[in-house]
Design brief:
The protein is α/β, with parallel strands linked by helices and 511 residues long. It folds into four domains: 203 residues, no CATH class; 168 residues, Spore Coat Polysaccharide Biosynthesis Protein SpsA, Chain A; 85 residues, no CATH class; 32 residues, no CATH class. The protein is built from 19 helices and 20 strands. Helix 6 runs parallel beside helix 8 and helix 14 crosses helix 16. The chain starts with a strand and ends with a helix.
Length: 511
């Protein structure tokens, strides 16, 4: 009986991709794809439905339930060295169980039984790598393949929600969410962790991948771009590509009339996206002054319903214009050409207001994206999907007074400590004058909240001029700034766990 890693090294073509097959509703779509391009890796009862390269089971109970289907459909069977019984690690090893269980004994005798150590087991075998197992078997499967050396993995039937595909309706009352989780959505945070740690290319087979995110920026915003990228990848449960639009080779001409010229250096960059995609597929546009707090999958998979562009809903009470700083674009139907667009402005066939604030060039716009995907200078731990730092004078990379700056700086510190971003790059951005000098001190001393910086450190920014010509002068009364420092101290002491009284106090204090 071989361990999975030894078998993988000797038997597997590293250039060939893998397909994980689970019991979720998208399993039904398998007939739409050519599965012969992949090594197939079934989860639990999925082996009943088709031949696979490897059948994977964590629970010993599934071996009994699937019986002859395993021997018939699986070239190989893999289980943890200590299999689970009723969702908990058992008392016996796979070696011991194979002495009495007929299917295991048969697979072992034929050289088709594989094993691996997993993180929840109380006993491990030899020095074989330990595979992280958490929540659902899809997590174990992806971790196992990634650690073994697979570089490309797709899936069908690894879905969110709380339902099985029709093929497994007979199991609904027996195994569905038997681990007492409320939904299969919980697996996505672990999948995101695996992607971030291993760099494996993973996506559901029925979704376009990778997620293409285009970011409006200039060279002065590259640190915010990189923190934005980290915040996306940290939570994304499928592979993502990030492209700063200022790095495209497409020249953006300026309109002749001053009133039609862009309000920010990247106002017109979003109109380059369809051309950069070859006018194919979907794309996401974000501004660089953002931070993502939820899985970008939710934005990527929103249906167009006949629209050419999806935008964020604008609350009437907000007093803000419609926001097109977060968009999902249907590049198949958008024929944007930046020279033609600027020509329309020059010839007064369209106004700047119509172009930027109404997206008048788009035939069908649907404001189907929830407001939580563009929270303007507001954050709720439960609700906010994207925090948008819209006030340039208080953005955390140029100013210390932002009351939500600890969220952004905390992620910057995490990105540097985790190796996703180098401290050397931060030093270069400070030297170029793109970000405030005190930010380097914060990172080196792990102080996420700049409102808690010593006065001598705050003075490091005395000569700093943010790289925005139109940067408004930032003034706050002493009482408001003192209140914000008090809030920062409360947050640090309480670890963000404030009770209802404290929240009411804060709300009253800042009015």
């Amino acid at each position: 009986m071989q361990d999975f890693f030894t078998w993988f090294k000797t038997e597997i073509d590293k250039t060939r991709g893998w397909l994980i097959l689970g019991k979720g509703p998208s399993f039904t779509k398998r007939m739409q794809f050519d599965l012969t391009k992949y090594y197939t890796f079934s989860l639990n009862h999925a082996v009943r439905e088709l031949p696979v390269t490897v059948a994977h089971m964590i629970d010993y109970d599934v071996v009994d339930a699937c019986g002859e289907a395993i021997a018939k459909n699986a070239k190989y069977l893999v289980l943890p060295w200590i299999p689970h019984f009723h969702n908990r690690p058992g008392r016996h090893s796979l070696e011991e169980l194979s002495q009495t269980q007929p299917i295991l004994r048969r697979m072992k005798a034929e050289g088709r039984l594989l094993w691996y150590n997993h993180s929840r087991a109380w006993r491990r075998n030899g020095n074989s790598p330990v595979v992280r197992v958490k929540f659902f078997s899809a997590v174990a499967a992806l971790n196992l393949l990634a650690q073994a050396g697979a570089r490309t993995v797709r899936s069908l039937g690894v879905d969110g929600g709380s339902a099985y595909g029709n093929e497994f309706s007979d199991l609904k009352d027996q195994t569905l969410l038997s681990n007492r989780r409320s939904s299969f959505d919980r697996q996505f945070e672990e999948i995101a962790r695996t992607l971030r740690v291993t760099g494996i290319d993973y996506a559901p087979l029925d979704l376009a991948s990778p997620v293409r995110v285009f970011v409006g920026a200039t060279e002065a915003e590259m640190l915010p771009v990189k923190v934005l990228e980290y915040s996306i990848r940290k939570r994304a449960s499928l592979s993502v590509e990030i492209f700063p639009l200022h790095q495209s080779r497409i020249r953006v001409p300026l309109p002749k009339d001053l009133k039609n010229q862009p309000r920010t250096p990247f106002s017109f960059q979003r109109f380059l996206i369809p051309a950069l995609t070859g006018h194919q597929g979907r794309a996401i546009y974000l501004d660089s002054d953002m931070q993502v707090f939820k899985d970008i999958r939710a934005l990527w998979t929103m249906p167009f319903k006949g629209a050419d562009l999806l935008a964020v809903q604008t609350a009437p009470a907000s007093g803000r214009r419609p926001q097109f700083s977060v968009m999902v674009l249907n590049c198949d139907t958008l024929d944007w050409d930046i020279d033609a667009i600027v020509g329309s402005l020059d010839e007064d066939r369209i106004s700047y207001e119509q172009l930027v604030y109404q997206m008048a060039l788009v035939k069908t716009v649907r404001a189907d994206i929830g407001a939580e995907w563009n929270a303007l200078d507001h954050f709720s731990a439960r609700e906010t999907a994207i925090l948008h730092f819209t006030n340039m004078s208080t953005q955390p990379w140029v100013a210390k007074e932002n009351p939500l700056g600890y969220l952004w700086v905390g992620e910057l510190i995490e990105a540097i400590e985790g190796g996703a971003l180098s401290k050397e790059f931060l030093k270069q951005e400070v030297a170029k004058g793109h970000v405030r000098p005190s930010l380097l001190y914060q990172v080196e001393h792990r102080i996420d909240d700049s409102l808690l910086l010593p006065q001598k450190v705050a003075q490091l920014d005395a000569e700093f001029v943010p790289p925005y010509r139109s940067l408004p002068t930032y003034r706050k009364s002493r009482s408001v700034l003192a209140g914000r420092r008090l809030r920062a101290l409360f947050r640090r002491c309480q670890g963000d766990r404030t009770d209802r009284f404290q929240r009411i106090f804060y709300d009253w204090f800042y009015r």
